[in-house]
From TrEMBL, chains A, B:
Family under the similarity heading: Belongs to the peptidase M20A family.
Gene3D superfamilies, alphabetized: 3.30.70.360, Zn peptidases
UniProt keyword terms in alphabetical order: Hydrolase
Lineage, opening ranks: Eukaryota, Fungi, Dikarya, Ascomycota, Saccharomycotina
Single GO molecular function: hydrolase activity, acting on carbon-nitrogen (but not peptide) bonds, in linear amidines
UniProt organism field: Pichia kluyveri (Yeast)
Stated name of the protein: Peptidase M20 dimerisation domain-containing protein
Length: 437, 437
């Protein structure tokens, strides 16, 4: 049986994508050598830095060459629009981000924008005019590494943050510098209103590295995302009693770290029981001295689940674990006091069913049924913001060892190319689907 | 039945001891207010500081007034000798230290020296000439808080450290300053050889606050010490894998903190099983970020036992716990690597049986059988050094809530007075016993 795909008659140069990933990494922020090959470094490209300006300039130059029109909005988002037959309709969107973590790799975000660029290059090389315009977006400051708000400018576009809020954000390395000043300084304070109403997209497709080990462990090549997890971060403090480790018998102790250890063990069981995630990864002790029993432990409990109901169950299970650990185990009959800061959770994201179906079909056509995997995103992405206001869906490619936010973040060239092929197919398929809407 | 004690006919002014504790605290380093009363502060009197010099000068002045002769040795120890009938024999020693932790209280060490001073004042006030001379020692830098070696100058005196080693120690707050320079600067670089051979004592008695909760919990007033615990500090590193908490399913994690949590729980059980102590109180995570699974955990395992054999058992049990935790639980089938720095342990201290018997009898005579308690010291003391070379034993008084190395370290005045009474009785008893040797 021959499968008919929208991209089957296209000349495709997917190697050009991999070359572009490496050449832009080399030019714009290469840092963190992890192997002997010249491509074996990470990238440090903090949002609104000089290097971010340089890659933004390059992005505009490349997309302009392809015949795109450029809009820069008042939050530094860049919209490069490839014309279609019907330019009065809102464009089909693709996008991700070109900024990185300080210890970033070559793929996180970058791969999504450059795959979108490769889609546009492919249309151009094939002299293909889509039914509707196609807009490639470089969303500004997805990482929140320098200016501490992740999904920064996509959140303003989606109406859940205001431009005033983000303008006032301060550089964590230099608290005299704000987003507003830096946007102005690097000349990316555009005049287009940052809003899905004033500057709409018809849909948003995003391809991204997984940043987790699931595809690799299951031997899959394409993740078809149905959504992103609900999550919450709870700040917890346990109070014990600081006493000399040498002079305080075990039966007279109130050890806040022992309570915390029981909690760490317990929340891991809760997460498994409810098929979600629970992690304690940031923790501090007072006084943190070899021979003084910890009198005070602070930690953050990170809980996640595919569903909002699942998150409620995990939260409940973890709170029971905390209560039990403080009640019974570590205080030798004296209950340890604890406090919990328990903010409102981030709800689960559910991507648009039609877009998920289009991506799923594209994945089957490109890599086959056996190599694609339906999953949810563990991390947040610009698509979580766009999904609030327009049809959105995402594609994942494998991350070697699940490593990300690390220079040695890696995805094999053939996996990068297969992902791009799925994105191209999905974009063409959606462009065709829009005719019937 | 009337009990005959050696001190029964003495005029005793034990309130003077408590007054001296407070007046010297007020004059020499009061710091850290913890209550509304003027006596409710701690003391910060770092070894070889200006304040330490001032209290040393005061100590010499007070003991000289009582008719003592003074020797200052080349490590800053001060020996104040009250004459006896037979001044050719080595003196009976009593001593402790006048230096404190930066967040010290009014009693740790200080109580021992000032109780010794009160013994000498009592002999003087009663015109009592002992059979043998009695030397009160202010041991230099017991705490090791500023110059990082605890039991510093008593260890040189006992021959287990050299004066060259301690002269070279650097101020942890200012690495340009050494012990040698500070001894010289404050004029306590004496000319007497720092050695139990050149400047002998016949025995060493030390009274100290417990710094733990045992006497208080058991409702006892006097601890009769039979020795001090064996102990060891093991530096342990556990390697997991840093991965995103949101993207890494529980079953694919290698969580170094989960392994550590299982270890903390396990070593607590081991300690209880072998009736010793095991504590983890200093711990650091890498990267210590909310949403990154800890890839690396460093911690110190502090183990202690009354006997060397007990310490061997605890060490063995803890090593099994570590192996099991890294093998089975946290790596989802992948063994976590770990390293252990396992120095040679400090062996158990066993005090001189005769001195322990003398203190025990003195305690029975002063507070009664029911209020004295045989125990071992959890912390190190100058007596652990002197015990290596001369008959040594110690007396403890209760510490409120077991708190020490803290400004609010507290012992009730009547407990301080009772302790002094036991020391006086023991010194007189030993002076009498020496006639029969």
């Amino acid at each position: 049986m021959t499968v008919t795909t929208f991209s089957q008659n296209f000349k495709i140069n997917s190697k050009e994508l991999v070359e572009t990933i490496h050449s832009t990494a080399d030019q714009f922020g290469a840092k963190g050598v992890w192997g002997p090959e010249p491509t074996q470094t990470g990238v440090c490209r903090l949002a609104l830095s000089d290097i971010d300006k340089q890659v933004k300039d390059w992005f505009i130059e490349e997309t302009t060459k392809l015949g795109c029109t450029i809009k820069i909005d008042e939050c530094g988002n860049i919209f490069a629009t490839y014309p279609g037959k019907n330019n009065n309709a809102a464009a089909t969107g693709m996008g991700s981000h070109l900024d990185t973590q300080p210890t970033g790799g070559r793929y996180d975000g970058i791969y999504g924008v450059l795959s979108g660029l490769q889609v546009l290059r492919t249309l151009k090389a094939n002299n293909f005019v889509p039914n509707f315009p196609i807009t490639l977006v470089d969303w500004c400051n997805e990482e929140g590494a320098r200016f501490p708000m992740s999904l920064m400018a996509s959140s303003v576009w989606a109406g859940v943050k205001t431009k005033e809020e983000i303008y006032a954000l301060k550089d964590i390395y230099d608290n005299k510098t704000t987003v507003y000043e830096e946007l102005k300084r690097i000349k990316y304070l555009g005049d287009v209103e940052c809003s899905y109403k004033a500057n709409p997209l018809h849909a948003h497709f995003e391809i991204h590295i997984e940043q987790g080990p699931v595809l690799e462990k299951y031997g899959k090549k394409i993740g078809v995302l149905t959504g992103a997890q609900a999550y919450n971060w709870l700040n917890i403090n346990i109070k014990g009693m600081s006493q000399h480790t040498g002079t305080t018998p075990m039966e007279f102790r109130r050890d806040a770290l022992l309570a915390t250890a029981n909690i760490i063990v317990g929340i891991n069981e809760v997460a498994k029981k409810f098929k979600g995630l629970a992690s304690i990864a940031k923790l501090s002790l007072l006084p943190d001295v070899v021979n003084v029993i910890p009198g005070d432990v602070d930690f953050v409990l990170d809980i996640r689940h595919e569903t909002d109901e699942g998150l409620v169950n995990i939260r409940k299970g973890c709170l029971e674990v905390i209560e039990t650990a403080c009640l019974n185990k570590a205080g030798n009959g004296v209950k340890l006091e604890y406090t919990i800061e328990d903010p409102y959770p981030y709800p689960a994201t559910h991507f648009n069913k039609k877009l998920v179906e289009i991506i799923d079909e594209a994945a089957i056509n490109i890599v086959g049924e056996d190599l694609k995997h339906k999953m949810v995103s563990g991390a947040g992405h610009d698509s979580c913001a766009t999904n609030l206001v327009i049809p959105t869906a995402m594609i994942f490619v494998p991350s070697k060892d699940g490593v990300s936010h690390n220079p040695c973040e890696h995805t094999e060239p053939e996996e990068l190319e297969a992902g791009f092929r799925v994105l191209l197919e999905a974009i063409l398929s959606y462009d065709h689907y829009r005719l019937s809407e």
